[in-house]
Amino acid sequence: MKNRILFSILSIALLGIFTLTSIDVSAEAKDEPKGKSPVVTLSASNYESETSKGLVFVDFWAAWCGPCRRMAPILDEIATEYKDSVKIGKVNVDNYKKFSIDKGIQALPTIVVYKDGKEVDRIMGLVSKEKLVEVIKEYSAKKAN
């Protein structure tokens, strides 16, 4: 009987936690970027074609990830200000769990940097706009192999 009561209390507590984490998700944490942002929503089916040309930052994120939500407006700014230099794509890891695991994503947020279809760098965790601009300048200056 004690186990049954304990299980019921634990179930209610977990339900409350899941409910709280799904409430009040900000606009930048939704699957589709809001407005006319140049950020591209990526999926398993369009990933290769979207990362095949030029410099591409792919942000692996989740709605429940606080640092991911803080990174979103920074990436929106980069996508707008540096649209001629870099493409920004986003993969919601909750929607593409196996795909994200296959890509070796172990922490959120993770930005995978591609140059002409080849992975050239990974940036894990919350980083500043200045750091991302440095990466853009570094890989824009390098010739593709």
From TrEMBL:
SUPFAM superfamilies: Thioredoxin-like. Residues 1-29 form the signal peptide. Keywords: Disulfide bond, Electron transport, Redox-active center, Signal, Transport. The keyword Metal-binding does not apply. Pfam families: Thioredoxin. It comes from the Bacteria. Residues 18-141 form the Thioredoxin domain. The keyword 4Fe-4S does not apply. Gene3D superfamilies: Glutaredoxin (3.40.30.10). CDD domains: TRX_family. InterPro entries: Thioredoxin, Thioredoxin-like_sf, Thioredoxin_CS, Thioredoxin_domain. NCBIfam families: thioredoxin. Belongs to the thioredoxin family. This is Thioredoxin. It comes from Dysgonomonas termitidis.
